Structure formats: structure tokens, C-alpha cells
């Protein structure tokens, strides 16, 4: 285990100091764009950078429309509501995810059902999805959406998931919070379902401080998303009229300015993160009892958080203690949603793979090493 810590310090050229899990890097025009927001006084939800950030993200991901919002959780909540999820409905998702996925479902008034993950992708298993439909025919009419999650930047078997959901006319909303810069067979994550959601939290591949983006494959539907997440205000030179119950989830211009500068460096950031991932892959190929979690076939991953699987929970916990005591930040995956008190009574399918993954996985330092 000491050899792993030495390797990480060598990889990040940090012989003694603290190594964070994934710190943001600001090597571009961030200060210039933020100063422009202040100088022009456009720091709130109106300004040139919001539109530019949306357009840059649309062009990069290949979505028909990209809508900037205040964070990924609000983006998921709005996306689910706009595909028809509401009070009393059921939404199929996975237990191995960050709590925002389940909270967004609950915030619509619906109830999340937690399905198992594939051991290779860590994302929702389409086999588990098929099995749930076969075992619960009486509940299918109440299912109004499916929310698979692309874990750690790796693509789940999203095409199969969409195909299964299409058989039952159930829309797919992709939680691609960790997926900016990841592609499956050339198609960006978050663009396979009806809607997809990205996150720009401070620890993501790029950051706006806090923020999210809703991706739509249909421009008209994307325009509706924009309208409803921006208070449903009817355009007019001076009057304030609104034509629907809506949300004020607009991303402020000052956050979008940061996003624009970060997007200009995205290719460099992704390239370095993939070099880091390759170094981890090569190193762990010679380490007994520790397996590197690689991208699944066909996935060009952003390797948001490089992850390894230890032999068992005991070995995982020993390394977590050793590495963090040594000033190298590591962490386990999230507690399974089914094990949290507010979701303990929700239906799940046993979660065999998810429980093993959760017990063995450790996230390693994965931030880009770019210097200003």
C-alpha cells in the first residue's frame, strides 16, 4: 500500500504536500471574464456568458439545445418534471450513485426504485432493468421515467437501457453529472435519452463554482426547458408576464463566465486526465489484489475519478486510512441509496453487484495537472 502512495506522489510531482482528490484548475481567461462581468454589472441571470456557455456546450456535446442551470440537482428535478414525472409516480434508478439522483426524483413527488449496477460499468444494469419489468407488471403503468447514471465518467450500457425503456414508452433522463467529455462510440453521454444533465460542481472535470446543464436532443423541447427553468417569462420589452408554473433555476452570468473560460481549456484538461488514467492503468497492472476500473468497450472516458477495487472492505478501509493519514486524499464510493435512512423502505432488487462495488472501491486523486 505504501508503494501506491509513493506512485501517486510521483504522478502529481508532490513529494510531501497534500494531494486533493480533484481540485479545479484555472489556467485560462477566468479572471478576465469574471472581471468583465463585474465591470459591466452583468453578474446575475442575464449576460453574454450564459448564452455563450450554452452554445459551447451544445457544440461540444452535439446536443440540439443546452440549457444552463444553477446545479445538477435542480437540472435533474426540472428534467424529470418536464418529461412528465409527478406526485405518486415511480422512477427507476440505481442505488450506486450520489444522493442528488434520488433527491431529484423525490423532489418531483415521485418515488425512486433502486436497481443493481453492472460490475464493469458501475452504472445501471439493463439486465436488472429487464428483470424488474418482468417481475413487476402491475407497477409498470406508474413508472414515468428511468434515470441511469454514468458513474465516474464511464458510460453505462445506455443504448440497451433506452431500448428496454422504449418497449414500455418510458422516457430516459440521463444523470451525466460526471460525464462531460465522455463519449460512447462517438456520442456524448447525456445525449442518448430524452434529456441529460451535466454538473459543474467544484470537483468536476470543469467547474462554474456550482452549476449544471440540461442537454436536449430536440431543439423545440430544449427551448421549452429553457423557458420553464427561467420562470416561464413571456418575452416583452418591459412587462413581466409568465405563462406557466415554473422554476427560477437560471445560471448566473458570473458562473457562466467561469464556465466559458473552462470550456476553452477542456480539451487540454481531458488530455491530461487521460494520461493520468493511463499511468494508473499501467501501475495497477502489476499490483496484486487491486484492480483498476477501466472504461468499458467503446467508451472514451473522461476518467473523472480514477478508481480501483481492493480485495475486500477490510483492505479498502486500511488503504483509505493509510492514504488520508499520509496527506493523499482518497475516498470510497457513496453509501448506497437503499442504505440511507430516507430511502431504506424504497423497493430495490437486492443490489448484489452494487454492494460488492461499494465495499471494495476507492477513488484516487484524479485532477488535471495543468499549471497557470
TrEMBL record:
One of its GO terms (biological process) is polysaccharide biosynthetic process. Keywords: Aminotransferase, Pyridoxal phosphate, Transferase. The keyword Transferase applies. GO terms for molecular function: pyridoxal phosphate binding; transaminase activity. Belongs to the DegT/DnrJ/EryC1 family. PANTHER family: BLR5990 PROTEIN, TRANSAMINASE. This is DegT/DnrJ/EryC1/StrS aminotransferase.
Amino acid at each position: 500500500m505504501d508503494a501506491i502512495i509513493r506512485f501517486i506522489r510521483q504522478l502529481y510531482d508532490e513529494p510531501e504536500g497534500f494531494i486533493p482528490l480533484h481540485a479545479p484548475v484555472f489556467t485560462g481567461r477566468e479572471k478576465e471574464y469574471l472581471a468583465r462581468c463585474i465591470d459591466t454589472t452583468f453578474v446575475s441571470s442575464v449576460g453574454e456568458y450564459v448564452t455563450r456557455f450554452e452554445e459551447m456546450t451544445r457544440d461540444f456535446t452535439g446536443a440540439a439545445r443546452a440549457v444552463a442551470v444553477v446545479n445538477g440537482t435542480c437540472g435533474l428535478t426540472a428534467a424529470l418534471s418536464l418529461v412528465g414525472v409527478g406526485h405518486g409516480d415511480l422512477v427507476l434508478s440505481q442505488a450506486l450513485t450520489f444522493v442528488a439522483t434520488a433527491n431529484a426524483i423525490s423532489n418531483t413527488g415521485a418515488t425512486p426504485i433502486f436497481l443493481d449496477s453492472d460490475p464493469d460499468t458501475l452504472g445501471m444494469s439493463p439486465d436488472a432493468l429487464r428483470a424488474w419489468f418482468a417481475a413487476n407488471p402491475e407497477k409498470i403503468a406508474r413508472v414515468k421515467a428511468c434515470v441511469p447514471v454514468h458513474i465516474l465518467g464511464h458510460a453505462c450500457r445506455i443504448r440497451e437501457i433506452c431500448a428496454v425503456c422504449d418497449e414500455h414508452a418510458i422516457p430516459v433522463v440521463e444523470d451525466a453529472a460526471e460525464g462531460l467529455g465522455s463519449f460512447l462510440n462517438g456520442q456524448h453521454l447525456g445525449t442518448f435519452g430524452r434529456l441529460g444533465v451535466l454538473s459543474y460542481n467544484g470537483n468536476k472535470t470543469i467547474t462554474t463554482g456550482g452549476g449544471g446543464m440540461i442537454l436536449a436532443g430536440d431543439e423545440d423541447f430544449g427551448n421549452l426547458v429553457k423557458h420553464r427553468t427561467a420562470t416561464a417569462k413571456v418575452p416583452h420589452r418591459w412587462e413581466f408576464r409568465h405563462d406557466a408554473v415554473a422554476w427560477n433555476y437560471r445560471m448566473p452570468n458570473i458562473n457562466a463566465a467561469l464556465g466559458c473560460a473552462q470550456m476553452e481549456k477542456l480539451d487540454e484538461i481531458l488530455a491530461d486526465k487521460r494520461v493520468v488514467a493511463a499511468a494508473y492503468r499501467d501501475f495497477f497492472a502489476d499490483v496484486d489484489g487491486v484492480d483498476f476500473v477501466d472504461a468499458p468497450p467503446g467508451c472514451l472516458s473522461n476518467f473523472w475519478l480514477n478508481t480501483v477495487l481492493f480485495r475486500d472492505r477490510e483492505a479498502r478501509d486500511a488503504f483509505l486510512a493509510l492514504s488520508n493519514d499520509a496527506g493523499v486524499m482518497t475516498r470510497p464510493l457513496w453509501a448506497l441509496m437503499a442504505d440511507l435512512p430516507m430511502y431504506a423502505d424504497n423497493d430495490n432488487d437486492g443490489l448484489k453487484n452494487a454492494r460488492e462495488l461499494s465495499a471494495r472501491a476507492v477513488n484516487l486523486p484524479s485532477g488535471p495537472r495543468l499549471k497557470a
